[in-house]
Prior knowledge:
Elements lengths: L21 E11 L3 E2 L2 E2 H11 L4 E6 L2 E2 L7 E2 L10 E8 L1 H14 L4 E9 L17
Antiparallel strand pairs: 1-7, 1-8, 2-3, 4-7, 5-6
Helix pairs in contact: 1-2
Protein name: DUF190 domain-containing protein
InterPro entries: N-reg_PII-like_a/b, N-reg_PII/ATP_PRibTrfase_C, UPF0166
Family: Belongs to the UPF0166 family.
Amino acid sequence: MTPDTPDAPDPADHRTRPRLTGPALRLTVLIGEQDTWHHRPLYSEIVHRAHTAGLAGASVFRGIEGFGASSIVHTSRLLSLSEELPVAVVVVDTEERVRAFLPELADLVPDGLVTLDACEVVTMAAPAGTHEEGKRTS
């Protein structure tokens, strides 16, 4: 680019991307709450990498009970000593963008379960700062 030419929009910058609606792909990563990546919670590492990659959204959901490949049931019930509760990291974006993100998970999730599901985005929250805190927009 020349100094007179404005920089191209950064595809990872959500402010320059149109809002996601219509057909999409949902990536779900099922891991344990205590799983880490370089002393950081694995779920946090996945969310931050998804954000850096410019994906439309990611959320982490903490399970109250579940089991995986080990067949050991982990639960949050009061008398249980389990601290390894299930965690689901859910990422939604276009199929192309989600599939491009999959290699990021190859080293991060050697023991978890990764699934892909077709979905449809009906509505997406407005970008931060577009409406007053605590008030709904029409």
